[in-house]
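Let us practice reading a record.
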Amino acid sequence: MTTAINKLAEAIAYTEKSGDLIINQLQELVPMYSEKLNNLEGIPSDQTIQGIIEEADAAIGSDNYESNAQIEAWIKGLKDNWLACVLSMDILDEASIEAPANLTTLIENADFIAGNKNGWTVEQEGNAGGDAAAASQNFGVAEFWGATSFDIYQTLPTLRNGYYRLSVDALYRYGGTGSELSAVANGTAFSPEVLYVNNNGVPVMLWSNIEGGAYKAEAPKTAEEIEAGAVDEEAPVANVSRYTVAPTDSEPWYFWSTNDKTGFANMVADGRYHNEIFFSYGVENGISGEVRFGLKKEQKPSSDNDWCPFTNFKLEYLGTTAPSAVESINAGARMAAIEAIYTIDGRRTNALRRGINIVRNADGQVHKVLVK
């Protein structure tokens, strides 16, 4: 008899605790979605979520709930109707590549400001690294460090028909600094990390890429030059260092970059290491059904620890007229390990450059990638 009473008491306590947990969740979600609704850049025609917010907020204010099922229905309704609300905004009707509609509110924890990967599904082998809120910026920095492979992603059940741009601030360092410097010097460095949407992906910029990533640097002044009055070049931002690439068949060249999250955040705030991919949904050869997007690395080409910091995912709607940059992506640039990248005139390069790039994957597929 005592055992049965104890089990009943435990069941009641568990039910009360479960009820408290979902009430707490509702109390967090209602103001969050209310704020997100107020911060929308456009006016939504679908106001279903507004009614749910008002109804749930009234229950919270009076501390009067009919049942746990009612609370769970409100929670589900908030999440399910947020997508419909955002996709019904009036600004989407006039969106174009020149005036895109910002849909980043559909990405949970897009800027990693809390210093974690909450909201993202993470699949990985090996070390994950440590995420952190950037000390001097309004965003955080997540990372993978030395992971054998990883896939970090979110999904959306549907999108509005048309064209999109997904972007992220990220870099890929080919092993340690010495490994990338050597690989760049001999022409073998590449980025196996890709920014992707479903089966299409583009390589993330290499750490040493001076086409929008690292800063091109001057040669360091010698002691004799400084003694004669020359002034050495100053670092462009805090927490960066100057590095030298010394090819065997050409003159050395120099760049500024970083090996820590604070320096990366400073460079991102200055517009460096911005990666993007275009895709279409429900038109031409575009995606249909669920949309999965994120960053992925399927191999670790160097024996020492590579580094993959990232932040500031952004999703934009570009309207229903195809931007020229979408054409090569929709042609079928399916994800695979990148084996080589060439310029349009056939010269091998260590990273994607502005303009048309010829990319050969390890599976033998060759395709064009346009970087604007």
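A brief commentary: Residues 2-38 form the longest helix (37 residues).
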